[in-house]
Structures are given as C-alpha cells and as structure tokens.
Amino acid sequence: MSTHHPDRRRLLLGGLSLPVLTACGGGGGSAAPSPAPAAPAPPPPLADVPALKTHFAAHFKFGMAADPSGYRNAIANPVILRHANSITAENCFKPASLGTSPGVYNWATADELVAFAAANGMVVRGHTLCWHSQTPDWFFTGTAAEVRAKLETYVRDVVTRFKGKVACWDVVNECTSDDASSAYRNSRWLQILGPAYIEHALRAARAADPDAKLFINDYGTEDPAKLARLMTIVTDVQARGAPLDGVGHQLHVNTASPTPANVDNALRSVANKGLVNHVTELDVSLYSDPGSCFAPSRTGCAADITGDPTLLAAALKAQALQYRALFNVFKQHASLQSVTTWGIADNSTWLSGFPIARGNRPLLFDTAGAPKPAARAITDDGYAP
To answer: Which domain does 357 fall in, by range?
Structure first.
C-alpha cells in the first residue's frame, strides 16, 4: 500500500490491543502519498551501505513499493536501482486502477511498471486482486452468482495479462477482522459470497497462471490475537483445498512496537502451516500514537518532531534499533523469501499524510535518498546508532 488503507486502523498504535476506530490505508488508499518537505540539493552517494539486494541475497529478496511516478524521480530512482531486486506497485495494480468497468481495463501504468522491473532484474509482486477497499462498486452489483463471476473474470483477466511477468500475487488483501467476534472481515465480499470468496479468487488466479505464487496479505499479524484469526482463515482455506502458497505480513510498525518475539511468532505460525512468508509493506513510523489518533476525531496524535534536531535524532536512533531487531528476526526464518519496504525513500511516504499530516521518516533512506542510521544498522552489526 502507499496510499492509505482505509482499514489499517491499528497498524501504528502503540498498544496492539487497542481497538480500531476508523479508517486508514497502506495496502491501499486512493490518494497518492503526500510529499514530504522538499529535499536538500542532489542526493549524496549511496555507496556507504552495501546494496541491500546483495547483502540479503542468502536470506530473501529485498523489495520496494512504488508506482512509476514514485521510482522515476531523481531521488528515488538510484535508490531502487541499487538496492531492490523486487518491486510492488503501490496503487497501479489495484482494482480501482485497472478495472475501469466489467471487461474494460486500464493497463498502461501497470505495463510500464512490469517493463521497468524486467529491464532492471526485479521480480514483481502483484498487489492486489481482491480487496474490500479501492474496488469499484460495479464488482458488487447483481446477484451473488453475478458477483462471483465478475470476481473470477477479473482475477483471470489480470493474472493472464501478466502471466510469466508477475512472480506472486497478493490475491486477497486484508480479509481478517479487527473485531474478535469473527475471523473474517465483514466486507462486501463476505456479505455477498461468504468466506468462499477467498477460495474463488485463489482458484481463478491459479488457473490463470499455475506458476505464480498466491498469497493472502494482511496487517496486524504481529498482534497475537489478530494472527490467531488470520490463521483460522488459513486453516479454512487449506481445508477447502484452495491453492494458497503463502502469507504476506504488512508490518506497518513503529519505533516502540511490536516486539521481535511477536514478529517471530507470526512467521513461525505461517511456516508451521507449510506456507511461505513475505514481509510486504514494511515501514517504521517515528510516532507511537494512541488509539484516539486513528479515530475520526484524530485527537491525541503526537506532534511533528521532524523540525526538532534533538527529538528527530533520538527517534532515528530508536528506529534504527527497531529495524535491526526486525531484520535479525527475518534472517532466522528460511520460510521468509521476500522483504519489501512500503516506499523507497522518505521523500515520498503515505505516512506523511496518515493518520494526520506531519513529517514522518519511516524508511531506510532519507529525503535526499541517503542511507539512514536504520540502513546502516541492518547491514553492519558493529554499527552503534
């Protein structure tokens, strides 16, 4: 997601047990990310950290999320070319971008991204085919049989278009409830088709490209309670015999949460089901906000610290330590085959506009494209942030 997931309401809360109150969006959102403040002059050389795709090659692919407008700019382009061997589209693969009307598609931007990836030795993660957000209303009109047919046709057409060009798909995005009363999110898909909509989407994708790896992608898997609900869905899908290859963990986190143990537990739980793990939308916010900050009132949000050199330095140190702790967990899991940050550099991040407009610096590279303490922390165990 760069864009705002109308449902990632808890993803950045300091306490994982806080209820979700309103909307947000990383695996999704309809608006482009709000630009961060203008960056200083030309980007400095990037040679002071190794290429991340090379550094982590023995463990997993290293990816970044962007649309063409995001990876073309002079700050981001050298960063993604040097460091990434995987790319995820922030928005241009989503139904709202591709699915103009039944059977009518807007391929241009997605085609451009796929060509860029092929020219630069990157695999493509397709994000996403079935989601409750950023999906046109036309999908949901008609009888249940008609809705199912539209879903299956859309999935088949999109996956066929990119057969052999997209390595894996987030087939179903954010299907897990934030409410403990049910495992399944109460989406229009669920209301019309019941839990079987997940199976329908997975089977349509597998039929269109038998070689592509198929994923369920969700946020909050680092919360043990939500993870348990997701694993209930996984168990149901596997019991139906539906083709599922892995689980994507978004991991929109902050400097204070989650604990490495909770992330380790999420990866281990998926691997124990015989599935592949991907980290799909990683960023580490500088802020640990209360639940009220994510409510419609947007109250209690932490003040912008990016203009205060002392506070910013302390937050960047905490961020570096959190990134290091997370990557230390990642490297322990053979089932983890891909790690993607939700963005390239801090010059463009969805968190500059969510949950409120303020400066945020959640990625590994700064607003000028230079490696941050976090980038050094994950590549040099001897570095002290």
So the answer is: 52-379
Question: How many structural domains does the chain have?
Answer: 1
- Supply 80's token pair: 């993604």
The string of pLDDT tens digits covering residues 58-117 is: 999 999 999 999 999 999 999 999 999 999 999 999 999 999 999 999 999 999 999 999
Question: Is 41 contained in some domain?
Answer: no
Judge whether 212 lies within some domain: yes
Does residue 42 carry a pLDDT above 80?
no
Percent residues over pLDDT 70 in the chain: 88
What is the CATH number for 195? 3.20.20.80
pLDDT (tens digit per residue) in 162-220 = 999 999 999 999 999 999 999 999 999 999 999 999 999 999 999 999 999 999 999 99
User: Could you tell me if residue 71 is inside a domain?
Assistant: yes
* Residues noted as catalytic: 174, 281
- Give a yes or no: residue 168 inside a domain: yes
